[in-house]
């Protein structure tokens, strides 16, 4: 029996009628979600996130006072693991780049397409369900090992979801963040640093995050590369670093392999982003 809780959604858009349209457009209950709250700007949304658990944020980019990108930047500072969908009227490559760097799961354009939204929700629901199953699995292991006590019957499910994951996975992510630029970073070296078995860490990480350790490291490295490459084309006061230098800065010894991975991830070469020659036409 599926015991995964309903996923809680926060909709952030300064257009009241669009928020209402989105609420009525989707059969949220059938998709495994509920619209827990809505806000008309980033400041109000941050207050909501501080008061209750949110599993998915759907936000516009162009909003007064604090735009959607700035808002999500503040959300990430809170260590929120909420999934993220950007819905915007602007088919802007720079926006898409920034959205990727902030961990956007989907980037959709207005007028909103019902099928596209429902497909995005199906994907995210699967990832959330796997994450919650992983949390229960790892908690059972920790209970068996005596690290934590059995939860009480009255514990609120929402409070359990407020955590961004187990301590082990949190330490793993922190370790990768600190060492992704080292080409020696691996599952084995990370497991050794955290004093755990590599097989156990691999299994726990996949269950908790929905992606393998290698996939996660690759996404972190390529996300950092995208930011560095995007900055390179706009630097005027100092010579911008070469592609090979950027590859080394994000943990790739071989610039050709880096370029291959980058193109597979983003559908364009590093040189295209670096030179600013990308065109969406």
Automatic annotation (TrEMBL):
Keyword Zinc in record: no
Keywords: Cytoplasm, DNA-binding, Phosphoprotein, Transcription, Transcription regulation, Two-component regulatory system
Modified residues (4-aspartylphosphate): 60
Record has Phosphoprotein as a keyword: yes
Chief place of localization: cytoplasm
All residue ranges annotated as the HTH araC/xylS-type domain in the record: 170-276
Residues that span the membrane, as ranges: none
Compartment list: Cytoplasm
Domain Response regulatory: 8-125
Gene3D superfamilies (alphabetical): 3.40.50.2300, Homeodomain-like
Any one Pfam family match given in the protein's UniProt record, by short name: Response_reg
Name this protein carries in UniProt: Response regulator
Organism: Paenibacillus rhizoplanae
């Amino acid at each position: 029996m599926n015991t995964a809780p309903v996923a809680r959604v926060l909709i952030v858009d300064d257009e009241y009628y669009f928020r209402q349209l989105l609420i009525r457009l989707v059969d949220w209950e059938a998709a495994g979600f509920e619209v827990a709250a809505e806000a008309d700007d980033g400041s109000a949304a941050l207050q909501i996130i501080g008061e209750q658990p949110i599993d998915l944020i759907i936000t516009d980019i162009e909003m007064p006072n604090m735009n959607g990108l700035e808002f999500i930047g503040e959300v990430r500072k809170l260590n929120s693991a909420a999934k993220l969908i950007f819905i915007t009227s602007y088919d802007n490559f720079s926006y898409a780049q920034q959205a990727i760097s902030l961990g956007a799961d989907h980037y959709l354009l207005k007028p909103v397409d019902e099928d596209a939204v429902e497909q995005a929700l199906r994907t995210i629901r699967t990832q959330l369900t796997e994450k919650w199953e992983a949390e229960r699995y790892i908690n059972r292991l920790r209970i068996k090992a005596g690290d934590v006590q059995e939860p009480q019957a009255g514990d609120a499910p929402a409070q359990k979801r407020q955590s961004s994951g187990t301590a082990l996975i949190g330490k793993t992510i922190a370790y990768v963040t600190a060492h992704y630029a080292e080409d020696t970073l691996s599952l084995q070296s990370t497991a050794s640093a955290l004093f755990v078995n590599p097989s156990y860490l691999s299994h726990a990480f996949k269950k908790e995050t929905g992606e393998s350790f290698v996939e996660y490291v690759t996404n972190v490295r390529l996300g950092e590369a995208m930011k560095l490459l995007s900055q390179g084309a706009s630097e005027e006061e100092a010579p911008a670093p070469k592609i090979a230098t950027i590859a080394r800065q994000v943990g790739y010894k071989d610039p050709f392999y880096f370029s291959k991975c980058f193109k597979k991830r983003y559908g364009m070469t590093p040189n295209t982003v670096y030179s600013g020659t990308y065109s969406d036409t």
